[in-house]
Amino acid sequence: MDPGDKILFDILKELHRIGILCYLVLIGGWCHRLYRKYYDNPFELTALTTYDLDLVIRDPEKIQIKIDIKQELGNIGFIEDFYGSSGINKYLREDIEIEFLTARNTGKRTEKKYVKQLNTNTQSLQYLNILTDHTIDIDFHGLKVIIPVPAAFIFNKILVLDRRSSIEKRDKDIQMITDLLQFLQRKPDLLQQYKTIFENFSKPVKKKIIKTAIKYSMKINLTSQ
């Protein structure tokens, strides 16, 4: 197991041990790494490095256990921290940062949502439902991990691209989007899924995707009509 995989595996193994991995959807930059493994290392997908692990809690009310995630992650070297004065929790270790997220339907502003089952304050964001509604289960060194399908990943990244305050992170997101779009071109089933997901969006969401893609010169081969 290479060092990057080992970092991720040890965290996911702990989340599995305490019984919450099955309620989480892994998103963000680590998805790109997992897509490379799941799809047999396609040449289109660039090897990228990330030090942030983002996990969406899907349907928090369905979690059947109550834990203190601060204490559990403390067992593998994490300490609890906060985003400024927002009260939103994040968990830090010298090699990686973990954040738990929850989905909401509307609004651009970041909001806080307390998840009592984990005893943590999550960042509640718009458009995360795109990721949690379209997922695949993959095997990662013997662990079942839930990640969004590539099309959902692409659309979510496009929709939040303008909210990126860091130019470096925005450029990395554009690289991931571009890589996956190129990859889909030779995968008819994934390309059809991409088109189907787009067609099911509302007209305003379609227009936002098209507008953002044009702004950043991304060829997404879709129309809002």
Over the alpha carbons, how many angstroms does the gyration radius reach? 17 Å
CATH architecture of the largest domain: 2-Layer Sandwich
What is the number of domains? 2
**Category from helices, strands and their pairing:** alpha+beta
> Any idea of the CATH topology of the largest domain?
Beta Polymerase, domain 2
Tell me the number of helical segments per DSSP (H or I, 4 or more residues long).
8
Shape, principal axes of CA atoms: globular
Whole-number average pLDDT? Answer: 92
The helical percent reads 40-55%
- Tally of DSSP β-strands: 9
Reported for the largest beta sheet, the result is: 7 strands, mixed
Oligomer: single chain
| CATH class annotation of the largest domain | Alpha Beta
How far the N terminus sits from the C terminus, by CA atoms, comes to 47 Å
Question: How big a fraction of the residues is strand?
Answer: 15-25%
Low-confidence stretches: none
H-E string: HEHEHEEEEEHEEHHHH
Give an overview in words.
It is a single chain. The chain is of the alpha+beta class and 225 residues long. The chain folds into two domains: 1-148, Beta Polymerase, domain 2; 150-225, no CATH class. Helices cover 40% and strands 23% of the residues. The chain contains eight helices and nine strands. The strands form two sheets. Strands 1, 2, 3, 4, 5, 6 and 7 form a seven-stranded mixed sheet that branches. It has a two-stranded antiparallel sheet with strand order 8-9. Helix 5 crosses helix 7 (188-199). It is globular, with a radius of gyration of 17 Å.
Keywords:
single chain; 225 residues; alpha+beta; Beta Polymerase, domain 2; 2 domains; 7-stranded mixed sheet; two-stranded antiparallel sheet; globular
